[in-house]
Amino acid sequence: KLKMAIQNSLGQNTNLPGNPTTTTQAPGDNSTRVATTAYVDAASPNVFTSTDQTITAGGLLTIAHGLGVAPNNVQVHLVCQNASANYSPGDVVLIGVSGQPNNTGVSVVFNATNLVIRYGSQSSTFPLLNKTTGGSVNTTNSDWKARFVATRIVT
Description:
By secondary structure, the chain is mainly β. Helices cover 10% and strands 35% of the residues.
């Protein structure tokens, strides 16, 4: 009956005229209720992406992320600068966060304000798999930059 009353008052066009408002549903509501922009914004991830950072063996970086809370997830992307191991400039490789054997890799400690990053002390900080052959290669730090992506998903 309600649908019929709405259609009768609006004609067959059920678009709501003007600027209709409604209450914002509770976080995590997985129903078919109307979602306001406030609900969608609250459920969307807050994302910080750093500028591309120089990789320095044993280097320490502190980068403010601006999320206002500690992120739920941090990713490290290596961005190819010069052709290396069959990667082309601009190629992006997702790598794991944590120290690797032989003092390689990266660790990231995060809080509500910053990402604190420590590169492994090996001169070839990030061993990778060759893009074409899959064989293990030691990279040259100057051929790559690191990009850090922190997300905070509010549910």
